[in-house]
Write the structure tokens for this entry.
Amino acid sequence: MAPYRLLVVRLGAMGDILHALPAIAALRRMHPLWRIDWLVEPRWRALLSSAEEACFHEDGSSKATRSPACPVVDRILTADTRQWRRDGFSLQTARQIAQLRSELHAGDYDAVLDVQGAIRSAVLARLSGCRRVLGDRNPREKQASWLYSEPIVTESAHVIDRAFELASAVAADPLEVAMPPLPIDAAAELWRDHLVQENPRYAVLHPGAGWGAKRWPPERYRAVADWLAEQGIAVWINAGPDEQSLVAAMQGCHPQVRCVSSSLAELTALTRKATLVIGGDTGPLHLACALGRPVVGIYGPTDPARNGPYRFPDGAACLVLRSPESRRDHRRLPDPEPGLLQIDVASVCAAAEQLLAQRYNQQQDAS
């Protein structure tokens, strides 16, 4: 009997992929011999695998023993939709879409699960030629549901729990919630060990965010970083390539506070052993949750009940700070939301101190 073949469509972004991954990892645990492929934008590939090779047998079945470099999926297919939108109807774009269509048809999938709920992801799901296409009945973009052969009613508030509802519908399985395994990149692990060798007790701070309204002021992050350094904790400030102004605002901090530029694999390795992670509603914060690290989330216009830090049963504690004055607003405004500014440095330091004390007590109990 041929193995069941599933294609997952979740193109991006970083946090959204990490929200979908626990449910797909649960499907993998339930069905170790299923063939599970994932369609993603090229820049997020490292969230799924640090290896280039396919992870399935010649008959198309999944390898029962998963590789640390490729712990969940069997094959990764890529769709550079960002580039396609920039290039428009160029010949190169047409060729790439035709090549992707050929690869999707060759997969001969029994089901396609669109976890993204966008028109472009639903169209790519249909491009596979599979008759069974599942997705949320009330997706982020309403028209996407018109392309599903099986629209699924989801009732959960948090996006991770909604992804579990969708994944459960594929084979009517009750799935166990647990942290997803993330790929281990050996070179990135060595880079991390060298970076933190002076002080392996460290925090990672993420002052950036997708847009200004979600961004707590960098000078406040600087004050929190100084406080952590005074507690004997090294601090690494992570900022993306387009966030150099944030890095500049952090200059002149305590000597134990430094900025770091890293690849996605290196950021994963750095976060994997972090003592504490602090940031707003951004992909690296959700990465920390997926790795089971203690997290302080600083929230403003986005609702933490929907996409806040997720406490896995086998993960560390998460604390969310959000002012009662904040209201849900996804407009990409350039300035910090007024409610976000009501969160002061002392509140963030107090939350960090609480998590550090919990971690210390757990370590004492374990010893």
